[in-house]
């Protein structure tokens, strides 16, 4: 309501004092909004739902599809057939950007465009807060990390048309590999660098990386593609050293920081890498770091023009979809809320770690010592069944049917071929890890209740196994639970990354 | 509520007859749902919002993030920080598919996976209803048509590793060209076939296509990339003849059917092409054909295994986002509702056509004769100002500030360079179209009120111009409306496809 | 967003022209709102949901419970425990009015108070549109008509402390009678005036009313309590003549116009009554006339101070609940939408009437001739079963189990005692109506589909009866449908007014 | 989804194991619901929004207005014109009960009726939890406490037709008095018993009550109307002693327990009163005790048939409106959540008490010693301005404009006439309280932040006054804030109970 409308309201209510009190209430909302628009930063304290919805309503009525007097004679007019759909998108129906240029402003959608600018600005603010203080530019894309990495590689190709090798310290996640392979027929060639075992940890083989670069010729290397967040016992890359090598050899460096925003260690590695060496872009998943639905990523970097080049590669204009969720979420959390989530995650990591350690000892297993991995933990499964990996797999099924989600069992000696490339010891990031193990992670949003339930159910399963083994029996309940546990089926849940 | 719960309710209500009446009411909903699940077809009559929401609620509680007893110890657990976000996605937070394999079922999300399967099944049903009766397979992707086309080309590359040419009858839309260019540095080479002028229409130069194939060698051609829906005076491709050539030379054929589902003519062309010749896949935008928010497409074809190959190229799992909107929309419309929309669109096309013709005659212009284009119309702007294209551009600005969206003015002789390729006469699909013109389209969901408002405002603008010209004056109001109408600014709205 | 915020937005978007377009879009919403606030009338054209919700949001942030800086130290602070509840009330949690004075403004809730004022103003406008052009004052209460009538009688009591008789032309609806009886132990005494049979119609016995007034002494009569909308074959009161009598004898006159707003005839009667005689207040149900949920009424009249006196009798402050629904509804319909509903209702009445007539004739029954009743119709059930009312009752049950709601069968000779007063021939408004019959009504919002389904199902039931009778059998299916059709049960559905 | 639908889903998903996992997820929801329906008790742990909404959806489809095949031919068919309205009521449009009998089941609305039964059952459970362990019956009404009290008095009148006196220990709240006065013209006569001052507390004058009963004759007394929750320095009635007197003299006893459910002390008084003496019904506000919007009450008692008699006096059927909010709220809180709220309220009371005490001492005021009042506190305003009550009033205005809501200043010697009855010292519950004071309360849902903000703002105001006084100036800012602070205006905020 503007000034005239307040005037009209006063006359209707016949009580100026109360109306003025109301107007003052409204003013406070306007001021909040103004601070947001002027600073483009995530507010310190989260907004209530009411303020957020009002804001989204205000943005929506600035889009042409919501103009009271609009008439549309094009083929893309933001018309919506279902009221349910209109409402769930707050009537923000037009995308932002133009067909073929995501970074342009969409003339039909000032509100949606503003929303998108704000989101990128706020996310940048949060990346700084989370530890990469010198990041200068970022943008949200409605694709997961895999596709986002591909976008980066394609952009680099324009700059280094002759380079075709991507140096890639091994990380056993299909989508990471596929991000290079999707484009492989077109000329990229991933060069896998095996990790080295240090204690229990699998770490970057820096010497092998450098040797391979020299071997291939730096000018033929498109980029180094490194990883921070990963399943233990693999640990985040030796990022500083990689970044220094990239700087020395003048090779681009793309970091897959999939769920690393939630960890100050991962973010610190990126900050340090950029400070002492070279990092061109780092990519993170929206859902894993900001607790929004699956399907978005943030591409960020230290050079505005490179980040903008990447954004120009993206041919569509549906970006706002992911932006909307992340904007709502960050406004409702505020910086303080996000900081609190980071803190709780860290505490939960310690708790999970200590509890899992205790349980492991009871069953003659041990927690792998992986101090460099700040998120994921691994417990050995050496004594579960000495003679068969089947048992390890069964443990996974049992946990699944007991509604434990996200736990991952890694048997020995699995082998998998992805796009003609065969990985020995697949899932364990190395050809021959010494033992089978079980992964659990403390990710953002995890509750103490999750940990407790997990440990209770895990213990029950372990106990069952011990009992059964001592009787020389199979574990029968699996058959009742998952009748069709073919090998393929079992694979399914194991790879549920 | 299941049987036991009805029993308990009866005891509480102390009136079995009324409760039974209530149970019968519920049963009707269950039967609806059953028909949907068993047949996998769009219901004939649309569902009310209540049934749709109940169904989505039911799906959501089958996803692990909504299990009452779930505990999550992974890094991707469908956790959501904001209630607003959870609600607007009906708590369907997990994607479907697995990281790296969209066609796999997501173990954590039976409900979301079911939703996705159903959506593809219903969309297939609607594609048949709309005219492509023999289509056998399709899937929804959360990307617009441009990126979807790229996905098809990448898939073909795996099958024809040495082929690099894409035969492309010219269509002046940036995203179409970019769909090939994004990957261009990697080896694709678009081969532009200029259109021929027949009367007012710009049509496919079939002979030139065939000659170019012979010239390049069929084995070097990745595919023919043709287009159905387009701005007049260009008209849909001579699709049957193209399909026959593709069959004869054994060349894949990808059809950009962007907003063609809404036109029985476009769909008929595809059906005929597939019958007499070769079409490998046809791609259509979700928003333009199904009245949902921007950002999704359907990839469809006649060979299940090829369509599945394309789906495997897609590395992410956020598909359900687009599925959800299109599922809600189609369930709420029903087949009859969608048929009705198609019928109304056709009627509105006739109405727009006849009204625009009348208006054109009053101002000494004429409606271009483009009988092969079933959606878009063009009116000449020859007499607006004989001496300057500036005026044509101003007309565009005036319409924009008068809240006419989607109208497009095409001046003479514009030239544009897209990724190093220069198009003369850009926007007009040919180097030298005889005159400037204005486009308007009758797209699905257009109302008579849109047409009437458009014509009224257009007439007012035309009148203004005539008046101003007779006084030898500039048109002053533009300056008031858009003060910063630099050339770049003006470009903006013109290209708003 | 205010001016400063638009400025900040422009800077963020780096495109003043588009932002200005957006601001213009917003301005249109503001102007709508302003017209509403200044004129206090229902807009001619309905508002879309987006505008309505934005408006409600704006009102809500003017209530103290939504002040960002509010601190509450009272016992009633508009705190809400559940987000679901907050949202469904648009965060309008405080009532309006003060404890003990509904017409006062609630200092904690400027927004809610404004909402209430506006609603009363708009409803007044609609009452005029519907036919009572000279109505001057009205207010919405969160009680149904029965309780609202009681409120009127209590107010009159203060003015006529010695009068205890309420003259009441008989109408067989429990809540009407109860509106006087609730307070009966306290001194009111309803005086029932039996109706006279004219043709098929039951009409007001004007002479009996006047005779009774003379008999009791006008000064002892609290008021005449008359009725417009009613089930055929009773017809609306001879309201003009009653009003003249009231004027002549200086007796207050309260009209129960339950669902009469939807009929121009009922409204015309009130308008005429007020013009030529005396009407103090007329009461109408919100749900039956404005298609909102059950539980509200409008008390209206021609003398501001009397209507205000009534409002002061109402001790609570929860009014806004009913106001909110009726405000949303009328804003979304607009005057034109409401007018359209009235027109459709009239057409549907003709249709129902003609179709029911045809069906009656097929089964040797007839439609009662009740031209003065503009809403309700009655079809005789004379030949259904000559010997038993049981059959009539069974017909009712059969219709109920076939999901026909609102049809009412009236058997001969039912008798009912309400608060010690025994009505012979209860439900038929007279002691001995010549025949049993079935009622159906054409009320606002009825669709052609309702009529068609009703007639189809009714015909099926009638056919069944004829068949069964010819075999000398009972109608068995009832037993299957409602096993416990005790008399009480059967009563249930019959009295479902 | 029922069993057949799960079967169909399995076939569609081609993965029985995942689907079974989904079905198991659903089953958990069904079990929750079953426990609720079978036990009719508030669940120990609160339900999430998803479960609640699913439950409401399920109830809604059992109401005839949501039957897919329903046809309505009555005048009240639950039709709704606005989708916004339908949704905010979860499509529960029909009321419960029948016109004229709220305790009957509404045949058209099995779902709504079930909802209502459940609500009453759950609220009863919570009343027990809160301390009245032997309560046997209660029901929710969509009216505030005032109107609910009137309903009780009217019911008693039927049982004691000759009794007209209501014995009422004075409590200065308009709606309490009005609950007797609304019906006063009809024969009730409130007999005000002045309170006695004990220390700072105002307590029931038991002897005066008994004397008055003897004086009037027990048979002429309709009932004793007592109060628990109230503003300090008045304290809850000596309820046990009153109940004993009522038992001895065979006089009904109605307790106004307005916001007493939140205090174990108030509830304990009722429990004890019922144990040792007589309490017929006790009435509590929904909004003040259960944190729902204004406008509902619970009428409860120890004799089913009396409570049912009261329910039969209520002529309307809109009950579900209040039921819906309270049901949602209690399901979302669960017993544990409600218990937690009670606990926090108590803690906040101690905190407010100690902080206010400190502040009082700084300004030479003191916290009144009112140990019997568990909710409300009072701080003297003796030194604010020795010579004028104006200052006290100004303090109120200042707090109001500073967004402190619910604080109440009580000046000396105010006098007010309500319905011809003049109260000296109005607002202070006695003719001559020794000093002016300020009230603040710790009510359910209050946060520490409320207390802190309140004290900060209060301190600022106090400081201002001290400063101004020492300069001999008026407090100028008031004039800026509320220009029209006429006496009437000022009254407004003071009485904002």
Automatic annotation (TrEMBL), chains A, B, C, D:
It is an enzyme of class 2 (transferase). Belongs to the SepSecS family. It comes from Pelodiscus sinensis (Chinese softshell turtle). The record marks 75 as: May act as a substrate filter by repelling compounds with a negatively charged alpha-carboxylate. The modification N6-(pyridoxal phosphate)lysine is found at residue 288. Its cofactor is pyridoxal 5'-phosphate. GO terms for biological process: conversion of seryl-tRNAsec to selenocys-tRNAsec; selenocysteine incorporation. Keywords: Cytoplasm, Protein biosynthesis, Pyridoxal phosphate, RNA-binding, Selenium, Transferase, tRNA-binding. It holds the Pfam family SepSecS. One of its GO terms (cellular component) is cytoplasm. Substrate binds at residues 98-99, 106. Its EC number is 2.9.1.2. It comes from the Eukaryota. This is O-phosphoseryl-tRNA(Sec) selenium transferase. SUPFAM superfamilies: PLP-dependent transferases (SSF53383). The gene is SEPSECS. It catalyses: O-phospho-L-seryl-tRNA(Sec) + selenophosphate + H2O = L-selenocysteinyl-tRNA(Sec) + 2 phosphate. Converts O-phosphoseryl-tRNA(Sec) to selenocysteinyl-tRNA(Sec) required for selenoprotein biosynthesis. Pathway: Aminoacyl-tRNA biosynthesis; selenocysteinyl-tRNA(Sec) biosynthesis; selenocysteinyl-tRNA(Sec) from L-seryl-tRNA(Sec) (archaeal/eukaryal route): step 2/2. InterPro entries: PyrdxlP-dep_Trfase, PyrdxlP-dep_Trfase_major, Sec-tRNA_Se_transferase, SepSecS/SepCysS. PANTHER family: O-PHOSPHOSERYL-TRNA(SEC) SELENIUM TRANSFERASE, SOLUBLE LIVER ANTIGEN/LIVER PANCREAS ANTIGEN. GO terms for molecular function: O-phosphoseryl-tRNA(Sec) selenium transferase activity; tRNA binding. TRNA binds at residues 275, 402, 467.
């Amino acid at each position: 309501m503007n000034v005239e409308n307040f005037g009209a309201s006063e006359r209707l209510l016949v009580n100026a004092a109360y109306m003025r009190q109301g107007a003052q209430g409204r003013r406070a909302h306007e001021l909040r909004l103004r601070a947001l628009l002027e600073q483009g930063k995530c507010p310190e304290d989260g907004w209530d739902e009411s303020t957020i919805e009002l804001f989204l309503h205000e943005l929506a009525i600035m889009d042409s599809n919501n103009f009271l007097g609009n008439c549309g004679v094009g083929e893309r007019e933001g018309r919506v057939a279902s009221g349910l759909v209109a409402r769930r998108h707050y009537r923000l129906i037009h995308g932002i950007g133009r067909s073929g240029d995501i970074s342009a402003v969409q003339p039909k959608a000032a509100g949606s465009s503003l929303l998108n600018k704000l989101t990128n600005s706020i996310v940048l603010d949060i990346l700084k807060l989370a530890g990469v203080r010198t990041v200068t530019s970022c943008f949200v894309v409605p694709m997961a990390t895999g596709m986002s990495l591909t976008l980066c590689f394609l952009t680099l190709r324009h700059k280094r048309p002759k380079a075709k090798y991507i140096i890639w310290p091994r990380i056993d996640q299909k989508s990471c590999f596929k991000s290079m392979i999707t484009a492989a027929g077109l000329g990229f060639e991933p060069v896998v660098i095996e990790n080295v075992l240090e204690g229990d940890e699998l770490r970057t083989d820096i010497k092998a990386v450098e040797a391979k670069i020299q071997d291939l010729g730096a000018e033929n290397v498109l980029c180094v593609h490194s990883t921070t967040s990963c399943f233990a016992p693999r640990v985040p890359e030796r990022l500083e050293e990689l970044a220094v090598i990239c700087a020395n050899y003048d090779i681009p460096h793309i970091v897959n920081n999939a769920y690393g925003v939630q960890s100050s260690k991962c973010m610190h590695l990126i900050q340090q890498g950029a400070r002492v060496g070279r990092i061109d872009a780092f990519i993170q998943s929206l859902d894993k770091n900001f607790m929004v639905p699956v399907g978005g990523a943030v591409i960020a970097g230290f050079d505005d023009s490179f980040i903008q080049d990447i954004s120009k590669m993206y041919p569509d204009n549906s970006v706002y979809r992911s932006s909307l969720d992340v904007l709502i979420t960050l406004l409702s959390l505020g910086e303080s809320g996000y900081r609190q989530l980071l803190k709780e995650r860290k505490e939960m990591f310690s708790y999970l770690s200590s509890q899992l350690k205790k349980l492991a000892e009871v069953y003659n297993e041990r927690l792998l010592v992986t101090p460099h991995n700040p998120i994921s933990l691994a417990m050995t499964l050496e004594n579960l069944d000495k003679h068969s990996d089947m048992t390890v797999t069964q443990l996974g099924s049992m946990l699944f049917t007991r509604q434990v989600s996200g736990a991952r069992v890694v048997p020995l000696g699995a082998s998998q071929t992805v796009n003609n490339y065969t990985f020995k010891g697949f899932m364990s990031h190395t050809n021959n890890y010494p033992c089978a193990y079980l992964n659990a992670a403390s990710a953002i949003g995890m509750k103490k209740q999750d940990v407790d339930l997990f440990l209770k159910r895990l213990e029950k399963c372990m106990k069952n196994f011990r009992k059964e083994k001592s009787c020389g029996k199979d574990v029968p309940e699996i058959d009742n639970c998952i009748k069709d546990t073919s090998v393929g089926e079992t694979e399914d849940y194991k790879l549920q990354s």
